[in-house]
From TrEMBL:
Protein name: Membrane domain of glycerophosphoryl diester phosphodiesterase
Regions that span the bilayer: 28-48, 60-79, 114-137, 149-179, 200-221, 233-263
InterPro entries in the record: GlyceroP-diester-Pdiesterase_M
Domain Glycerophosphoryl diester phosphodiesterase membrane: 152-264
Record carries keyword Amino-acid biosynthesis: no
Species in which this protein is naturally found: Thermoflavimicrobium dichotomicum
Keywords: Membrane, Transmembrane, Transmembrane helix
Pfam families per the UniProt record, alphabetical: GPDPase_memb
Amino acid sequence: MDPQYIQPSFSFELDGVFRVYRKYFKGLWFFCFLVNMILTGWMQWLYIRQMKRVFGSEQELLLSAIHLGVDLLIIYPLIQNACHQLWLKHVQNPHTSMGWKQIIRMSFRNSGKIFVANGLLSLFLLLFFLLFGSIIYTNIDAGNMYEKIAQMIVVSVFLFSLPLSFIFIRFALIIPVISVEQKSIGQAFQRSWELTRGRYWLILGRLILLFIVTVPIQIGWGMLLRLTIESGLWFQWIAFVLTLAILPLFLPLVPLMFSLIYWDERVRKEALDLQFRLKSERGEE
């Protein structure tokens, strides 16, 4: 660790997230809007079509599974990669501007390895969840299969949220590692584990703080959606437009947080800021 390193405050990354977000807001929002538009638009269209009759349990579970799968396997890694590339550009030149077209191009750098690594992490989390969830499922006395699955999910999330979050946080830096250090997939998992060693509770606390900060917006959005959903077809379309416009506001927050955490951990342990400064003085990329 650099002896001159000064430990930042608990809210250091949170402050950095909103500073970077504010500077590149237009490009980031429109990029997230485009990435999320097809999935969210399709989901909202289904709900509008089904407005006059209630979804069955199997339909709800299937739609939720599809939504979660696309979020984890496609949307999150693209946004994480774009946010990290954006952060690196900002570090190299804080006065640079970045439009949505540039952000889209950056999101696909090293995308092959990034999709595979993120898919492996998602698969591991899913298998962990199903392994212990199946035990809970066999001990639930409920009506039909879909009700038992719904109860299993709720109980499993309650019981295993900490171990699942531990696995996610320890391997959450695989995308920045692949993006910056050009590591292989196996090396990226090992490197992320090393960088987050001893930092689980601090990172978890910062993620919780980020969630708390956004709660008022989420509550206001939820109340507005509830009012529109209960008010007829035209208001359904208003809810549809609001969802498309507001959801992209939240999508970059966690990816930006992990980009800053990656930077802070490497500055703390490896003096990465000095390495960047030396490269800049030499005219290197």
